[in-house]
Amino acid sequence: MESSKQVGITEVVVRDGIQSLLATRVPLRDLVSILPALDKVGYWSLETWGGATYDSCIRYLNEDPWERLRTFNSLLKNTPQQMLIRGQNLVGYKHYSNEVVSRFLEKSAENGIEIFRTFDALNDFDNIEFSIKEVKRIGKHAQGTIAYTTSPVHNLDTWLDLARKIEDSGADSLAIKDMAGLLRPFDAYDLVSSLKENLSIPIHMQTHATTGMSTATNMKAIEAGIDNIDTSISSLSMTYGHTATETMLAIFEGQDREINLDLDSLEEVSNFFKEIREKYSEFEGSLKGVDSTMLVKQVPGGMLSNLESQLRANKQEDKIDLVKDEIPKVREDFGFPPLVTPASQIVGAQALLNVMSSRRYENLSNESLNLILGKYGKLPGDIQTDLFKKAQSIGIEEADLDEDEIEKMSKELKELCANNGLPDLSENIEMLLTYIMFPNIALSFFKQLDI
Prior knowledge:
The protein contains 20 helices and eight strands. With 451 residues, the protein is of the alpha/beta class. It has an eight-stranded parallel barrel, surrounded by seven helices. Helix 19 (429-437) packs across helix 20.
């Protein structure tokens, strides 16, 4: 497919920028005033929702995520809102029934989402096909996604095969999601060139700056004809985040491919988020430059900091290097899943268990069992034989994915509200969806609401 001269920009500062650098801890009240300026910049889209936003709103901010979305929608007159979902996992951490997926997508669209970027942690197409088709059914832009990783079982043919399935399912565009900053610039050129030769839909890309390659990777992707890239405003960019929007604008000024954005509005946005970064600096990670651990062991920075805190809690922080060494071994034993939510948490936790036990796989977490036995989808490679036999011998309860999920959870919520002196929230589909996604923390959130 031919590319236009213009390169579109998806600005991620109010979702992935805040998530990557400030642990998604910035409340709606601190974002409202900058939305009109963001709306004037000329972005292709603004990523505003999805990922960890929903979880953080109810877990830490005592804020209704649906109200956040509606407020954004009321203030963004020119720029489409985009969200990230995990296919059948939506914004939670397990597979939900098709009925739940449908209702969630419908409500998201109704409240303002125009573009749905859908990925699966294992790149199992079966886990994203239904979401893509549902987004098309409700008349919104469906973007299917490659969760990029490297391993002995991933190559260019892997990505072309998945990309063709995504296009054939009716997706409006394809995204390359490089969550760990592993996509090297020349590999990006080859990947994008091949995708452009084989697909007729536009190609988008998101790459993180963690390994120091993001700007060069974006450049080579643009040279290869990519249609759109994700960037974050300069004052909330780099390290765990993304290449700065202004940097890419400057690089391609006066070139054959160009990025057309309003510089004055960008300066206003940058000054605003500089203050936001200072205000919420307590949530910023320790990374000051580049994390080379990712290049060698494919261990995301956020995953390491979480493991370090767990080891400290058990007074075994001296074992962090052993855990770092164990993670790639577990990943190989598990069939090389990409290290992205939820697979990254499962592999990391199992590596920690292995290091703290007297022998490897003495204890298998329930999540590890689910992953090994295919409950999250098909793993890319072969699972280590003895490990698979052990998992089979332990077995797990079948996940409940029947189409009565909404009805069952509605009854549960109705009873929960009655027992806790709350009005019946089961009749409100948004509150019901919140309960379905996060049943363990929903009650404390509901008690905070002014209802």
